[in-house]
C-alpha cells in the first residue's frame, strides 16, 4: 500500500505540472520526514551526487553537441552521406539515418541529433516527394540514436547510479545501435519501393563526392577520435568529452570557420540551461532514491516480482510495459533516474547482466522520446518542421514498432550488447 501511495503522490505532482526535479526532491524530503529520518540526509545525498567525476562528462558533451549544432556540422555530414547513397532506393532517407548515426556518435544527445539533421533533411526529403508523416517520424526516431550510439548521456547517468563501467556500457550500445540503424534503413528502402518515391535519381559525380566528403571529414574524424579513445582506454568518458569539446571548437572555428561568436554564446547558454536542468533532476532523484531505499521499496518490489513473475521473458515484458507507460509522462533522463534503483535489484535476481539491462532500459527510453505527450523528439521535430504534434506522432508509429523489434532481438540474442564489452 505504501508503494501505491508514494507513486500516486508522485504522479499527482507531475500531472499538476510541478517540475520533475522539485517533485522528486520534495517527495524524497517528505518521505524522510514522515519516516522519522534525519532531513540532513537530503543535502548529503545531493552533495554525494554532484561530487561525481563522471558527471563532468554531461556538460562537456552538451557543449560539444551545441557547438557542432551552431557550427552547421549537420549540413556537411548530410551532404557528404547523401552524395554516396542518395541515388539508392529511398537514398535520401538512408542518408538521413546514417547522418543521424554519425552525429549521434559525436554528440551523445538525442535532441541535438534530431534538431541538427532535421533542419537540413526535412525540407530536402519533402521536396523529393516523401510523405510528410514518414519524414517527421524518420527524423524523430533517427534522433533517438543519440542516446544509444555512444557517447550517451543516459548511459553515463545509468553507470553513475549503478557504479557500472561507463566504457562497458558504451561498448554494449554499439551492437543494438547498428541493429536499429539497419532496421530503419531496411524499412526506408522498402517504403521507397512500395511508394515509388525518389525514383531515377542520378548518382553524384566523384568530384561532388570528394568535395562533400572532405568538408565532412573533420567531423567524422572527431567521432572516430572520441569513440576510438574511449574503446582503446586512452581516456575516460569524461576526458573524451573534454577532448571532444576542444576539437569541436577547432573543427567549427579553425577548419570549417562556420561558428560565429554569437553562435558560440548561444551554444554556451543552451548547454548551461540543459546542464542545470539535468543536474537538478539528478539531485532530486537522488533524494527520492535515498528515501525509497530507506523505506525498502526496491526490496519490496523485488519480492513481489519474485512471487508473481516466474520467467525472465515475463519480467522483460512487464518492465517494457511499465517503462512505456512511464514514457507517456516522464522524460528520458527522469525514467533512468527513477526506475533504475527500483528495477535493477529485480533484474539481477532474475539473472540479467546489469550492462545488458542498462542497454535494454536505454532502448525503452528511446521509445519514450517519441511517445506523446512528453516525447522530446516530437517537440523538436514539430518546432523544426513547424507542423502539428499529431502529424509527427502518427509518423513515428512504424519506427516505434521497429524499436520494439530491436528489443526482441536484444532479448533473444543478448550478445548483441554483451559481445563487444566482454567477449571481444
TrEMBL record:
Pfam families: DctM. One of its GO terms (cellular component) is plasma membrane. Residues 7-414 form the TRAP C4-dicarboxylate transport system permease DctM subunit domain. It is a multi-pass membrane protein. Coiled coil: none annotated. Part of the tripartite ATP-independent periplasmic (TRAP) transport system. Keywords: Cell inner membrane, Cell membrane, Membrane, Transmembrane, Transmembrane helix, Transport. It is found in: Cell inner membrane. The chain crosses the membrane at residues 47-69, 81-104, 110-127, 134-161, 167-191, 212-234, 240-260, 267-289, 301-325, 332-349, 355-380, 392-413. This is TRAP transporter large permease protein. InterPro entries: DctM, TRAP_DctM. The keyword Cell inner membrane applies.
Amino acid at each position: 500500500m505504501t508503494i501505491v501511495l508514494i507513486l500516486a503522490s508522485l504522479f499527482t505532482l507531475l500531472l499538476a505540472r510541478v517540475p520533475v526535479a522539485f517533485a522528486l526532491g520534495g517527495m524524497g524530503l517528505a518521505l524522510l520526514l514522515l519516516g522519522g529520518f534525519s532531513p540532513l540526509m537530503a543535502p548529503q545525498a545531493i552533495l554525494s551526487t554532484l561530487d561525481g567525476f563522471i558527471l563532468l562528462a554531461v556538460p562537456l558533451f552538451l557543449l560539444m553537441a551545441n557547438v557542432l549544432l551552431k557550427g552547421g556540422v549537420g549540413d556537411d555530414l548530410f551532404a557528404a552521406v547523401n552524395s554516396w547513397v542518395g541515388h539508392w532506393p529511398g537514398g535520401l532517407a538512408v542518408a538521413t539515418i546514417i547522418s543521424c548515426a554519425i552525429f549521434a556518435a559525436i554528440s551523445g544527445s538525442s535532441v541535438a541529433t534530431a534538431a541538427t539533421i532535421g533542419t537540413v533533411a526535412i525540407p530536402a526529403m519533402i521536396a523529393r516527394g516523401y510523405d510528410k508523416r514518414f519524414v517527421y517520424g524518420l527524423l524523430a526516431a533517427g534522433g533517438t540514436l543519440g542516446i544509444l550510439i555512444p557517447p550517451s548521456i543516459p548511459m553515463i547517468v545509468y553507470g553513475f547510479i549503478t557504479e557500472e563501467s561507463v566504457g562497458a556500457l558504451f561498448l554494449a550500445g554499439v551492437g543494438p545501435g547498428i541493429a536499429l540503424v539497419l532496421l530503419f534503413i531496411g524499412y526506408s528502402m522498402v517504403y521507397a519501393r512500395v511508394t515509388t518515391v525518389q525514383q531515377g535519381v542520378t548518382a553524384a559525380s566523384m568530384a561532388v563526392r570528394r568535395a562533400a566528403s572532405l568538408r565532412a571529414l573533420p567531423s567524422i574524424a572527431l567521432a572516430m577520435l572520441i569513440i576510438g579513445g574511449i574503446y582503446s582506454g586512452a581516456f575516460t568518458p569524461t576526458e573524451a568529452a573534454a577532448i571532444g569539446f576542444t576539437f569541436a571548437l577547432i573543427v567549427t572555428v579553425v577548419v570549417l570557420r562556420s561558428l560565429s561568436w554569437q553562435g558560440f554564446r548561444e551554444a554556451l547558454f543552451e548547454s548551461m540551461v540543459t546542464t542545470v536542468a539535468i543536474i537538478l533532476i539528478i539531485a532530486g532523484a537522488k533524494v527520492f532514491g535515498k528515501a525509497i531505499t530507506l523505506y525498502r521499496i526496491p526490496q519490496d518490489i523485488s519480492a513481489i516480482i519474485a512471487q508473481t513473475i516466474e520467467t525472465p521473458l515475463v519480467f522483460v515484458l512487464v518492465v517494457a510495459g511499465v517503462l512505456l507507460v512511464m514514457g507517456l509522462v516522464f522524460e528520458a533522463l527522469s525514467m533512468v533516474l527513477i526506475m533504475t534503483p527500483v528495477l535493477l535489484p529485480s533484474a539481477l535476481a532474475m539473472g540479467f547482466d546489469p550492462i545488458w539491462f542498462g542497454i535494454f532500459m536505454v532502448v525503452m527510453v528511446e521509445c519514450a522520446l517519441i511517445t506523446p505527450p512528453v516525447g522530446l523528439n516530437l517537440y523538436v521535430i514539430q518546432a523544426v518542421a513547424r507542423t502539428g504534434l499529431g502529424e509527427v506522432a502518427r509518423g513515428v508509429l512504424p519506427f516505434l514498432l521497429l524499436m520494439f523489434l530491436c528489443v526482441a532481438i536484444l532479448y533473444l540474442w543478448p550478445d548483441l550488447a554483451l559481445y563487444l564489452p566482454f567477449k571481444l
